[in-house]
Each structure stands twice: as structure tokens, then as C-alpha cells.
Amino acid sequence: MNILLTGGSGYIGSHTVALLAGAGNHVVLYDNLCNSHADVVTRLNRIVGRSLVLVQGDVRDADLLERTLQEQRIEAVVHFAGLKAVGESVADPLAYYDNNVTGTLCLLWAMQRCGVRTLVFSSSATVYGDPQYLPVDEMHPTSAVNPYGRSKLHVEEMLSDLAASDGDWRIACMRYFNPVGAHESGLIGEDPSGVPNNLMPYIAQVAAGHRDRLSVYGGDYDTPDGTGVRDFVHVADLADGHLAALNYLGSSEGAGWHAFNLGTGQGYSVLQVVREFERASGREVPYEIVARRPGDVASSYASPDKARLILGWQARRGLDEMCASAWRWQRYGERL
Ligand code: NAD
Ligand code: UD1
């Protein structure tokens, strides 16, 4: 299949490119490189053993998008491109609505004009707001607690309206829980600029000696050890989930709008992750428990049953592999 991956040189996009290209698809990366490097494509070329196409462009550039869809004879789009930092979205909401909502709208117009109506969208568990019950299934009410989350929710609603208006659209919203880990080759991984906001890259930098200690946000939650519990899911499993979604959308069942959780169904606490990372790296990860981070919930984990039953997808990699691959990337990834 000919597949366009917007945001294809980013963290989750690049792992999905590796999988889809490795499976023999013609993949085209479309990225403005605002949060990634063209060098990722060189590394992807090494992984897949051939030269991939990167179109450097913005999803808000409708002309370039249309040209790319037509010239590359694209049949399906996986839409990763977007901004994703919660704090930044609170400080600069317009940038988030512009990039995430207007950007998606532009993409949809271009797809419609070019007759491409199969789309897999990167959504997030953030659309569930504060979980009202656990595990969170796809029937859980949606809400948003910050502009980033609202931008994802707006897009999901837009996609649902579009699918309801025209039965030719085939759309899957993939609601990722907490993506972590890196490619088994050690060639690609998460590369946050500045101080990492998220747990796993922060721990990796502490283990590597780049930061003194981890601040654990809250030790008095109603969880087994008092620290926050999340559903960490290996990025390579997420890539498998996108392949499964594309296969499903292409099947006789695939018409319409669908939402799928991508998580393991298993929650791990911050301190469990610290201990597992120490085991994987052989390094100590000093930490101190500090005040809760505003906006955090005690626990969040998925019911992955719908993805298993309908897509035939299930996360296969455990916390040990998530930590080991994140550590391999932290140690060796930059040396290439
Ligand atoms: P990332 O920042 O590594 O990748 C996003 C890519 O999109 C980057 O390469 C960036 O340069 C590109 N991009 C951004 N705006 C663009 C635009 N207007 N035009 C073209 N390219 C643009 O992020 P990621 O972690 O790989 O996330 C991918 C998607 O998954 C995002 O939509 C994000 O909101 C969503 N998501 C991520 C997580 C997570 O924890 N990483 C969780 C849930 C959902
Ligand atoms: C974050 C995003 C969420 C997004 C999700 C997907 C925020 C506020 N939320 O969720 O919108 O959908 O990623 O990946 O950014 N922690 C520490 N110390 C740290 C960092 C984190 O103790 O330095 C704790 C947090 O309090 C939390 C857990 O680790 O309990 C996971 O945090 P994080 O990796 O930031 O992910 P989420 O907050 O779950």
C-alpha cells in the first residue's frame, strides 16, 4: 500500500515507518521537522535497507499536501503530526489549535479533494480526562482538562462528523496511553529537546548521569505505593497497532469512524518503573518525592479488549523490554 505518514520523522511516527516500510509498503514521510531531525530518515534507511522519501512540509500547506498525495499515489494516511506538550498548550493555546486542529482540517480537505479517505489518527488517552472508572474502555465519557487534550477531542469529533456524512471514509482514532521505549536497533528513539516532561526519558537521563535525580510527583496517591500509576506501552507495540488498524480499515468492516485504546491494560507505578529501569541499566536512579504535579491523576490504565477483539492487536512487550530499549537508545543512540 502507498501510505503517507505526517509527522513520520517524530518519535512514534518513525517507529511506525520502520514497521510499515519493513512490511513492504511504499511509505512517504511528511514532516516540517519542528520537533525532529532529517537525520532520522538516514537512520530509517539503514533499518529498512532502502531510501525513504521525506517531504519537508507543513500539514497546513494544502497545496504541497495535495501534490504529495497525488504524485505519490497515496491510498491511506497515518496522521501523527502535531504538538504534544501539555504545559506549552496552556501557555500558547492558539499554537495548539492551529497546528493540531487547523492542521488536521487542512489534511482532511486535501485528502477529500484527492479521493483518499482512509485515515489513522494519533489520539490520546487524554481524551478521557480524569478517569471515572478503571480500566478505561472506549465507552468512557470523553472530556478535556487542557488545550492539548481539547485539540485532540475536537479532531476526534471532526472526524466522527466527517465519517457520518460520507460512508466512504474509513477512520481510526488510536488513543495511546503512555508510549515509551525505543526501536530494537538502537537507531531511533524518543529525543526530547530540553528538560523532558515525561517520566521515562527523565529517568533515562538520570541513569546516564545527565541529571542528578528524578523528582517523583506525589507519594500520597491512593495507589499501592503512593506514586502515580500509568499504562506504559512499548512504541514498537504502538507501531504494530497502526498496521493492524490499516488492515482493519481496508477490510469489509472498516468503513466509518472507530476509536481504539492502545495500552497494555497493566498499570505500573512511578517507583516500579524506577526499579525496573535500575535493573535494565545496572545504574542507580536517585529520586526524591516532591509535591504532586497539578493536573495529574492517581491512576490511569486501559482496557485494551476492543483492539484485541476487533483489530487482533495486543501489546507483546513488557516493562523490562520498554526500559531496556529506552536505555539502549539513551546510551548508544546519539553516537551514530
Ligand atoms: P513528536 O513530536 O516526536 O512527533 C510529531 C512530529 O510531527 C514531529 O516530527 C514534528 O516535527 C511533526 N510536526 C508537528 N507539527 C507539524 C506540522 N504542522 N506539519 C508537519 N509536521 C509537523 O511526537 P510523538 O510523540 O511522535 O507524537 C505523535 C502524535 O501522537 C502526536 O499527534 C501526539 O499528540 C500523539 N500522542 C503522543 C503521545 C506521546 O506520549 N508521545 C501520547 C498520546 C498521543
Ligand atoms: C502525559 C501527558 C498526557 C499524555 C500522556 C501520553 C502531561 C501532564 N500529561 O501523561 O497528556 O496523553 O503523557 O504520554 O504531560 N512523573 C514524575 N516525575 C517526572 C515525570 C513524571 O513523577 O519527572 C510521574 C507523573 O506524575 C505521572 C507519571 O510519572 O504519575 C507519568 O507521567 P508522564 O510521563 O508525564 O505521563 P502522563 O502525565 O501520564
Automatic annotation (TrEMBL):
Matching NCBIfam families: galE (TIGR01179), PRK10675.1 (NF007956)
Alphabetized SUPFAM superfamilies for the sequence: NAD(P)-binding Rossmann-fold domains
Family according to the record: Belongs to the NAD(P)-dependent epimerase/dehydratase family.
Entry protein name: UDP-glucose 4-epimerase
GO molecular function: UDP-glucose 4-epimerase activity
Subunit structure: Homodimer.
Keywords (A to Z) from UniProt: Carbohydrate metabolism, Isomerase, NAD
GO terms under biological process: galactose metabolic process
